[in-house]
Write a structure and sequence with these properties.
The complex is a heterodimer of chains A (165) and B (349). Chain A has 165 residues and is mainly alpha-helical. In chain A, α2 packs across α3 and α5 packs across α7. Chain A is elongated. Chain B is an alpha+beta fold and 349 residues long. Helices cover 24% and strands 30% of the residues of chain B. In chain B, the strands form three sheets. In chain B, strands 1, 2, 3, 4, 5, 6, 7, 8, 9, 10, 11 and 12 form a twelve-stranded mixed beta sheet that branches. Chain B has a three-stranded mixed beta sheet with strand order 14-17-16, covered by helices on one side. A two-stranded antiparallel ribbon of chain B has the order 13-15. In chain B, a hairpin with a 7-residue loop joins β9 and β10. The longest helix of chain B is centred in the N-terminal third of the chain and has 18 residues. The chains are: A mainly alpha (165), B alpha+beta (349). At the A-B interface, α1, α2, α3, α4 and α5 of A face α1, α3 and α5 of B.
């Protein structure tokens, strides 16, 4: 019989346990604490609806999403920092610009999630850089008609959450 | 165990974002969406002034659903580009292919290589690629964004704000779903007959005439500050007569009545420059303002609520503002975590 647990109950009864679960995954108590709170913030923002027979199973489901987001953000951030390190002009960017750019990249990464790598790259070249279809074709070693097909596929997902075959 | 009183989780309802009326994906069919993307891709490879541009305008004008689909693309591009990235102009001008510097091009290639390394990210697949609330324009906590609308109007979103954008043949309509916006209306030159510009909130409709004004949505009321021109206010209740609010004036209104009116206050929109400007502001009001710009919850102990402070505070790093408070006021900042923060009276012991 599923009970209606309030978020406060979920917090009071299970946050220590969730912290332990996350600490095992992350190997860091502070970061685990941050993600415990990210998890509860999701509940508070009603991004996740509590449907609870098993409160801990539910919490783990939400925490897994938080965790995968966290790792995904780390991956983007690492790629970003590596890129900046190789890019001498990067010193010209202000801290604010770097932060904004990183946020944009995280967003693009999220929106294009699940698409083949070559489709993502084509979209990034076209949309962020304004490269022509011919330039993208040459860079990726594919035909112009493939470039168009990829851009349409990426655009449908990015703008309309629409999966095209 | 919580270090906070009262329990912030139990009284959380008043700061939950108001979701609703934000889901608009349903209103665009897959066929129309697909066609809009095809047009966008065609435009990217078209010469400026080409027939494709005209064909796209024709397509958009043919059916409000087409225009809605196009607006969604523009809204997402604005969302991605409005983050003031060095590449922002390329994003917002997605329809235009423009020359870019070699250096910038190089960095995008590097980024693409670093970000999208081979293989797909199967482990990341457990969430929907598109949350419905991305549908139109929205700013996250701590983020301030500029939207450039198709008619030349400029809309600034304050932190944690959301609008739906609905441009049709007959009207240019913005629905404020959450938070606060500052609007500079543009002249509607794209069409032969100018369309009225309308801003909707749950409490009423605002119709500006060539003007600059801000609209802030509270749970129970809407506040309007007019800085230039004039704004016609029509209550959501048909029985309440309309009201014209001129430059330099402000009103707060609910569905049934105008609650207060006074002078427009430029300090209230200092956020457009990334600032809070306080002039003998009560601490509780100041913290409520700051709370909008940082994630989590910022709580003011009632014992210090009536303390006053003045100054200009940059919003780029809200936590620095917090940390500086004990230097000017008899308060201490208690961090439970970065999300749960209380400002309370300095203990004398």
């Amino acid at each position: 019989m599923p009970a209606a647990h309030s978020i406060a109950d979920l917090y009071v009864n299970h946050h220590r346990w969730l912290h332990g679960w996350l600490r095992k995954k992350l190997g860091c108590s502070h970061r685990a604490m941050d993600l415990v709170h990210d998890t509860y913030m999701r509940l508070l923002n009603r991004e996740e609806m509590p449907l609870l027979g098993e409160p801990r199973a539910f919490l783990v489901t939400v925490a897994r999403r938080v965790l995968s987001n966290h790792w995904r953000h780390e991956r983007v951030e690492r790629a970003f920092l590596e890129t900046l390190a190789q890019w001498p002009e990067a010193v010209a960017l202000s801290a604010e610009e770097k932060t904004s750019l990183l946020e944009t990249l995280k967003e693009v990464d999220r929106l294009l999630d699940g698409l083949p790598t070559v489709v993502k790259r084509a979209f990034l070249y076209a949309q962020i850089d304004g490269m022509s279809h011919a330039e993208i074709a040459a860079t990726l070693g594919i035909s112009i008609s493939s470039v168009k097909r990829y851009l349409i596929k990426a655009g449908a997902q990015c703008y309309f959450a629409l999966a095209l075959d | 165990m919580f270090g906070l009183s009262p329990d912030p989780l139990a009284e959380s309802d008043n700061w939950l974002p108001q979701e609703g009326n934000e889901v608009r994906l349903d209103s665009i069919s897959a066929d129309v969406a697909r066609q809009a993307v095809i047009w966008l891709v065609e435009l990217q490879s078209a010469e400026p002034g080409s027939e494709i541009e005209r064909a796209v305008l024709d397509w958009r004008a043919r059916d409000p659903a087409h225009e809605r689909a196009w607006q969604r693309i523009e809204a997402v591009n604005a969302r991605l580009g409005g983050l003031a990235s060095p590449f922002g102009s390329a994003l917002t001008q997605a329809a235009l292919t423009r020359p870019v510097s070699r250096g910038r091009r190089q960095v995008v290639k590097l980024l693409a290589a670093a970000l999208f390394v081979g293989g797909t990210t199967l482990a990341m697949h457990d969430h929907a690629p598109w949350r419905p609330w991305i549908a139109d324009a929205r700013s996250r906590t701590g983020e301030r964004r500029t939207l450039q609308l198709a008619d030349g109007s400029r809309v600034l979103l304050n932190s944690n704000s959301a609008v739906n954008i609905d441009f049709s043949d007959r009207a240019r309509r913005l629905q404020l779903v959450r938070g606060e916006i500052l609007i500079d209306t543009g002249r509607d030159e794209a069409v032969q007959r100018p369309r009225p510009f309308q801003v909707l909130t749950p409490h009423g409709m605002l119709e500006p005439v060539g003007t600059r004004f801000s609209v802030r949505l509270y749970d129970d009321r809407t506040r309007l500050d007019v800085f230039a021109g004039a704004v016609e206010l029509r209550s959501a209740a048909a029985s309440v007569p309309g009201l014209k609010v001129g430059a330099g004036r402000s009103v707060e209104f609910a569905v049934q009545s105008v609650l207060a009116s006074g002078a427009a206050d430029e300090d209230r929109v200092a956020w457009q420059h990334g600032m809070i400007v306080a002039s003998r502001m009560r601490l509780v009001d100041f913290l409520a303002e700051l709370d909008r710009h940082r994630p989590g919850r910022l709580i003011c102990d009632p014992a210090v609520a009536a303390l006053r402070l003045s100054g200009t505070y940059p919003l780029a790093e809200p936590d620095k503002i917090l940390d500086a408070l004990p230097g000017t006021l008899p308060v201490e900042i208690h961090y439970f975590t970065r999300y749960w923060v209380t400002v309370r009276a300095l203990r004398s012991d």
